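re the bet — no i am not wrong, look at it urself. input seq straight from the record:
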Amino acid sequence: MELLDVYDINGNKTGRIVERNNCSLTENEKVKVVVVWLKCGNKFLIQKVSKQKGGLFAVTGGAVSSGNTSKVQAQIEVMEELGYNLDLSQLKFLGSIIHNDAIFDVYMFENNNLIKTNFVLQESEVESVYWLSKTEIEEKIDKGIFRKSSIKGFEKFIKNNY
C-alpha cells in the first residue's frame, strides 16, 4: 500500500495522507508527482511505457510517496524504472505544473555520458527507452502517442529552453 501526502493548490502539505489507489481528493487538493527529463547532448531519454500502463511515450516519473521530497522521489523513480543512480547534486528543478489532481514537479538531469549507460528497465513500467531530439518528441506528440502530463512539461520547460 503506497501512501501519498495531500497538498493544497499552492503546493503546501495539508497534513492529510491518502492511499494511492484509493485517494478521494477535494477540488483544491492535489497529490505530488515527479517528472525527470534525462538529457545527453541534444537528446532526451524517452520511455515507451509498458502496455499494462498504457503503452504511450513518456518521461521518467511517478507519485511522491508520503514523507519524501520530490527531489528524493526523482532519484527513486529513476533507479526503479531505469536502474540508474542519478546524482542529486546534478538534478535541476525546473518548476511545477498542475494537471488534473496532481502537482507535477519537473526536473532536468544532464550528463554527457548518459547515452553510454546500459539501463536496466523495470518491465512492469517500461517497455523500452529511446534517445530522441525535440523534433522527434514533437512528432510523437502530434501523433497522440505521448502522455499528456509529459507534454505539459515539454511545452513549458523543454521546448524553448533546452
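see?? The mean pLDDT is 95. told u. also Residues 47 and 63 are 17 Å apart (CA to CA). so pay up
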